[in-house]
Amino acid sequence: MKYYLFFIFLIINNINSFVITFNNSVISECTSITPCDLSKRNVWENNEAPIDGDDVLIDLSSYSVKYSIYLVANRLDIELSSFTLYGQQQATDSDTLEELLTYLTINNSNLTIINQFNIQNSVLNINEKKVNNNKISINNLISNQTYTTLGGFLNIECNTTQFEGGSTFTEIIGDTNFTVNSDASFDSVILHSSSGFFTTMGTTYFTKEFFSSSIVHFGGNQTIFSSLSTINTMFLGGQMSITSGVRVTVNNYIQLNSRSSIAILQKSQLYLTNSINNKLILNEEIVLLDNSFLYIQSGFIISKMGAQMNGTIIIGDANDQTAFSNIEQPFVNILSQGNVTLFSSTFNHVNIISNNAWLNIESSSFINSLSNQGVTNIYSGVSLTLSGSSSSSTVNLAGTLTAQSYLNAHAIYINNNGALYSNDKVDATIYSTSGDIYFNSPNSTSFAKSISIQESGTLTLNKPSLYIQNNFAMDTGSLQISSVQLNSFSALIQIDGYANIGSISFVISLNNGQIKPRNHDTIILFSTNHTLNNLININETNIKFSNLQDVKFNIIKDSTGNINLVFYESSSFSTWKIIVIVLVGCAVIILSIISAIYFIKKRKNSSIGEEGIQFNTKDKYNRYNTFGDQ
């Protein structure tokens, strides 16, 4: 069938050309020692060798012989309309297990194919032994199931190419320059190790492996890799895409022009082991999509990343710091073995995998999740917001760190003017020197492993529930707790380790709508481990209520280690009222006593008067009687 298609092609494209056909009867003579020379007439039908403008056909596809067939063309200086070779049916020598194929070798030739060079099921070797003006020019090169070697000082130029063939491969060696001026499709393995250029100037597809240890130039609008590939040095004049989850490695550098870019798609990978444009700077040249990966060496400055992307940037060494500036990519991850610096950037996940590395936040940035085995430095006047669960071996905090979810660290050091805001748990030992610590966990108990506050540091709880797993030391500073409820069974701060609380400023705000405390209402300030020798010097003078006045309370420590604040009622009358009441009471008592004395005396005087009258009357009566008697 393909034989007839070939003739149809010839009829349409080459009306004035002749078809020169190989004489298949001589194939038994075409051995590796004495290959059939295509410049000889006897190997062609009718002893008619091809001349300029002819179409050459070598069709061995119907033969299944038990030996390989060798053809050679030396100094083939000719311009053909087309050249077609269909190799013999593939077979294997039963004794040597050698694959039996048709071999075509073209040496030191100045060959032009005006239309199509089509070779199938064969082995093609084109070689130029010395530097000269010889050139292989082919309009359309088709290689199907063919092992090809292009070597020596060869210059081969095609308009279009199609390489197909599954497990077959093409080697480009020596000083060969291979150029395709338009579209190219490579569906067989390409091994490019020559010192010359491998160049394509049209849309180019690599669907099988491409390995180049030399220089390649892709000048077309699109170059698409969908198979594992490695390139030493690449010049890119258009767009390049990496698809199908494959990896492309560039060992030396990539040179791009102003309109070039590289898109990494479908979970694919681009390894850059050196530079771009001889610089370690990225400005929108690379696009990450579909959870793909970009591997770069340390030392890059990435200042722009264009539209929204999705993928991971991997920094493969720790030789230098890598900087990201003004990048808003909430779906891009960073994985680094070395130091990373962020300037006003947003990322999904940042992972520092070396315990000797650091993450510097030079200007305010946002990270969904941080995993840092080294040190995180947040400088003064700068903020870092972590929205998801995060960890860092050490945090040096001179600016502001907001942890909206769980935060784990070996130690957090809060320096002057530094501030830590936590909406969840801080599984870390926190050291604060004149810094601020804020806990605001709306749905659960706030958590800290240990807290040590020195000098004028502050601790603020917007919800009255903080659990400290180990030690709590706060000799000076300010403690502020909001939304406190009376008579709760939970302490405002529970301390399982050692407690050292000095003469701090303690401000309490009762829950909104809370009624004024009554007698014996209680707030458990601290719950401590009573088996330890805790040092707690807080007293009534240290505590104030932001929304209450004129309340009386005592600080009482019970046998379980709780430090309780217990209210007691005071009189509702003012002092002057009390004095008046006392004076009035005393006056009433005095008047009552005086009145009682008066009435007692009056009653006694009345009794004495009556007795005197009775005595006088009787005496007078006796006197009268006496006179009468006389």
Name the features:
50% strand; five-stranded parallel barrel; 2 helices; 630 residues; 56 strands; disordered N terminus; two-stranded antiparallel ribbon; mainly beta
Write the layout of secondary structure elements.
Elements: H1 2-13, E1 19-21, E2 36-37, E3 55-59, E4 69-74, E5 78-86, E6 91-92, E7 99-100, E8 102-107, E9 111-120, E10 122-128, E11 136-144, E12 147-152, E13 155-172, E14 177-180, E15 184-192, E16 197-200, E17 204-206, E18 210-218, E19 222-225, E20 229-236, E21 239-242, E22 247-256, E23 261-264, E24 269-272, E25 275-276, E26 281-283, E27 286-288, E28 292-296, E29 301-304, E30 311-315, E31 322-325, E32 328-336, E33 340-343, E34 346-352, E35 358-363, E36 365-378, E37 383-386, E38 390-397, E39 400-403, E40 407-414, E41 419-422, E42 425-433, E43 436-439, E44 446-454, E45 458-461, E46 466-468, E47 472-474, E48 478-484, E49 493-495, E50 499-501, E51 505-510, E52 522-527, E53 535-536, E54 543-545, E55 552-557, E56 562-568, H2 575-629
Keywords: Membrane, Signal, Transmembrane, Transmembrane helix
Transmembrane segments: 578-600
Signal peptide: 1-17
